[in-house]
Amino acid sequence: MKKDFLSLIDFTQEELLAFVSRSAELKALRKKGTPHQPLKGKTLGMIFNKPSTRTRISFEVGMFDLGGHSLFLTADHLQLNRGESLKDSAKVLSRYLDGILIRTFDHQEVLELAEHADVPVINGLTDLNHPVQILADLLTIQEKINRIEGVKVAYIGDGNNVTYSWMMAASILDMDLRVASPPGHCLDKPGNLGPLGTVEFMEDPYEAVKSADVIYTDVWVSMGQEDETEAKKSALKNYQINKDLVDAAGKNVLVMHCLPAHREEEITSEVLDGPHSVVLDQAENRLHTQKAILEKLLSNGAG
Ligand code: CP
Ligand code: NVA
Fold first, then answer.
1. 302 has a pLDDT exceeding 50
2. What pLDDT, on the 0 to 100 scale, is given for residue 193?
3. Cα dist from 247 to 218, 255, 275, whole Å
């Protein structure tokens, strides 16, 4: 049975923690320069219907590191764009590829692709969630705080795809997530959350960061929401991660952002480049955690 990586909610606490610890091992191997190539002869197709720097490059380098190969595919160069169905495309691509990564708008498209593909499908971001990002964030938290369970995360700003995946992670991993967003700017809590962690919604960012271990933010205007730019900027103007907000949290608080950042909008340069920020470690960890996903899903005997 093939295994996909579509949403964090599809995994148990044990499975997610196993991905994190395997990522740390793969990171150590790479730092030592020890080759590890279980995906020799395997090819990952990567369909991107939205731009990407980190996801595209880290998956491509990850496949290379693991001895495999990747193909960068854009919708406008596929017959998908001329009306070939997702079902037919999934069946055909499965005859060439060993795995498919897709970044797109509608989450349903990813589910449909996965339903019809005979090879593993990985979600590289949809309008609804961004599971591969949060896995890298978990490795970063483990490295910096030395634990995941019980960690208090304050997510401040637009309650978007990244927030939605955070809600899943917190509930599965027994973390404490507070989401501070203005009314009407947060996706509803997923209906099928696990029983462990707590997810609380509030309007006041200062209340959310009180005693937080991590302050997390993301852009105010996600890809595909460009028409809402002015409305979002005005609604979210009091939700910036700046020195005052960071000072209101503990002195060891980590500041996280999945990047790309819009400096002086959702976060100031002073904070993004400051001592609390771990954003470059998060970006680097995309490579290591995604290698753990690729190894698990694509190597022989995976499942
Ligand atoms: N964080 C993230 O997914 O970045 P990209 O959009 O550059 O892939
Ligand atoms: N919420 C952002 C994340 C980018 C990695 C977006 O969807 O554009």
1. no
2. 78
3. 19, 11, 12
pLDDT at residue number 301 = 54
CA-259 nearest atom, ligand 2: 5
The total number of residues shown for the chain amounts to 303
The DSSP letter of residue 275 is T
Domain 8-130+286-300 has CATH 3.40.50.280: no
- What does the block give as tokens for 209? 């960061």
Q: Which of 61, 101, 286 to mutate to test the pocket of ligand 1 (most atoms within 8 A of CB)?
A: 286
CA of residue 141 to ligand 1 center, whole Å: 18
**Location of structure tokens 């979600």:** 123
Q: What are the tens digits of pLDDT across the range 141-198?
A: 999 999 999 999 999 999 999 999 999 999 999 999 999 999 999 999 888 777 778 8
Domain 133-282 CATH superfamily: Aspartate/ornithine carbamoyltransferase (3.40.50.1370)
In the chain, where the domains are located: 8-130+286-300, 133-282
Classify residue 156 by burial, with Cβ atoms within 10 Å: 0-12, 13-18, 19+: buried
Q: Verify whether residue 218 is a known catalytic residue.
A: yes
State the average pLDDT for the chain: 96
Is the CB of 223 inside a 6 Å radius of any atom of ligand 2?
A: yes
